[in-house]
Write a structure and sequence with these properties.
Structural class: alpha/beta
Order of helices and strands: EHEHEHEH
Number of domains: 1
Shape: globular
Distance between the termini: 9 Å
Length: about 100
Amino acid sequence: MTFYIDASVPVAVRRAVAALRTDVRYAGGPGAPEESARDVKWLPIAGQERWIVVKRDKKIRTRPGERKALIDAGLRTFCLTGAGNYTRWEIHALARGPMASY
C-alpha cells in the first residue's frame, strides 16, 4: 500500500511525511509525477499504481468534474477540507492520522 500526497499539500508537509514513512510518494518527489503535472497525467498513474491519494481541496464538493475524474481513475482518497487555511503543522497532523494505522 502506497500513499501519494498531491501538490495541493504544501511541499514541506509532503517531504516531512515522506521522511517519516517508506510507503509515501509525493508530487515532485522520487518515483512520482512532477509537481506541476496536470490531473489528466497523474490521476491515471495513481489509479494504475493503486496509490491512496491525500489531497487538500476545500472546493471538492462544488467541482463534480474533479470528483468524477478521481472516481474514474479508481482512486481511494483522503481529501483534507476545512474552514480557513491550515498551517503546515495542522496539515501534517491531519495527513499523518489516517496513515498511522497502516
